[in-house]
Amino acid sequence: MIGDGETLEKRLGIFFADKALLSLALTHPSAVNEDPQKFPSSNQRLEFLGDAFIDLVVAQELYHRLPHMAEGQLTELRSAIVRGETLARVARELSLGAFLHLGQGEEGSGGRDRESSLAAALEAVIGAFLLDQGYAATRDLTLRLLQRELDRATHEGIARDPKSRLQEMAQGMGKGFPVYRTVAESGFPHEKVFTIEVVVEGRVMGTGSGHRKVDGERAAALEALAALEGGS
After folding, report:
1. Sequence-separated (6 or more) residues with CB below 8 Å from residue 209
2. CA–CA dist 21, 42 (Å, integer)
C-alpha cells in the first residue's frame, strides 16, 4: 500500500470510526494468498455488500429523476452507471489503487490499475462505510462519487450496447444472429480474463477479452461492427 487510510479518508471527505473496516476494504485477495497471517481476510464480502448498495442507491436516484422512463430504460441506465468500467474510472480519479494492499505478484503485474480490482475496491469501501456510518451517510457518499455519471446518464442517455447494434446490423444484412463463444480463460481465479469470439454467418468477425464474459463479448462486438461497417 502506497497511501495511508487517513489520506484516503480526506480525499473521500469521510471519516471511519473503525479503521480496520477501511483497511479490510482495501485488501485485495492476492494479499491474503501471499500473507494470510497479516491479511486473514480480503475485501470480497465488503465488495458484495457495496455492489448491492450502489445498485439500490442508483436505482432510487434514477427512479426519482426520471419519473416517466420505462423499467427497461431505467435498467439500461443503471447498468451503464454501476458497471465495472464506470466504477474503475471513479476509483482512478480518487487514486484508489495507491491505497490497496496487494500481493507482490499482483503488484508486479499492474494490479494497482487493473479495472476489476479498482471497481471491486470502490464497492468494498462503500460496503465498509455502510457498516461503519449507516445508510444515510453512505447514500450521500455514493451519490457524490457518482454525481457526474448520474448527470451524464440522465441528461445525455447512454450509447447503445454494441451487442445490440451488431445484432441489428447482422440481421439487417441477412446474416442471422451473431454467436458468441469463449475461446480461452486465463489468470488467477479472482482475476480471470475471458477471451471471446463472435461469429457472424459462420465467420469469426471479432475477438475481445475482459474480466467478465459480457465485457469480452462487447469488445468482440465492437470489432465485428468495425469489420462489417468497413465491408469485410
Report:
1. 193, 194, 195, 196, 215, 216, 219
2. 11
Q: Domain boundary residue among 130, 156, 182?
A: 156
Residue with cell 455514493: 142
| Active-site residue identified among 51, 106, 132, 197 | 51
**Could you report the per-residue pLDDT of 177-226, keeping only the tens digit for each?**
999 999 999 877 767 889 999 999 999 999 998 878 888 898 899 899 99
**Three-class secondary structure assignment of 140-188:** HHHHHHCHHHHHHHHHHCCCCCHHHHHHHHHHHCCCCCCEEEEEEEECC
The question of whether 51 is a catalytic residue gets the answer yes
The residues with which 210 forms a beta bridge, in sequence order, are 194
User: Please, what is the average pLDDT of the chain?
Assistant: 90
Residues 35 and 102 placed together within one structural domain of the fold: yes
The burial class, CB within 10 Å (0-12 / 13-18 / 19+), for 140 is middle
* Residue 35 is a catalytic residue: no
| pTM as predicted | 0.72
81 shares its domain with 143 = yes
Could you say which of 47, 61, 107, 123 is catalytic? 123
CATH code, 196: 3.30.160.20
For residue 51, what is the domain's CATH number? Answer: 1.10.1520.10
Residues 193 and 138 grouped into a single domain: no
Residue 111 reports pLDDT greater than 80:
yes
The residue segments making up the domain with residue 39 are: 5-156
Q: Do both 132 and 210 map to the same domain?
A: no
